[in-house]
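Journal club side-thread
Mid-discussion, someone asked how the predicted structure for our own chain would compare to the paper's figures. Pasting it here so we can look after the session.
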Amino acid sequence: MKTEMLGDVLFPGLDITVWQVVVFDDNLIVDAEVCGPPGRCPQCERPATRVRSRYWRRMAGLPVGRRAMILRLRVLRFFCDQR
C-alpha cells in the first residue's frame, strides 16, 4: 500500500502544500499554499520574478465525509520588471 500526502489526495497534479486541516462546526477547513513556479507576464511572456503581494482565496469544495469543505488557498501576485 502506497502512503500519500494529504495534498496529493485532495489536489492531484497540483503543487500545493497543505498547512493545516481544521474541523469547525460542520465544516472541514483546509489551509494551503500554492508552491508552483510563478506564471508568465501576459504582455511580454517572460516569467515573473518579484513578489508584489500575497492574498488568500477562499473556495468551497465538495463535501468530505458529510462535512462541507472550505479551501483557503494562499497565493502570490508578481511584478513584471520588463517595460
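Post-session note: The first helix runs from residue 6 to 10.
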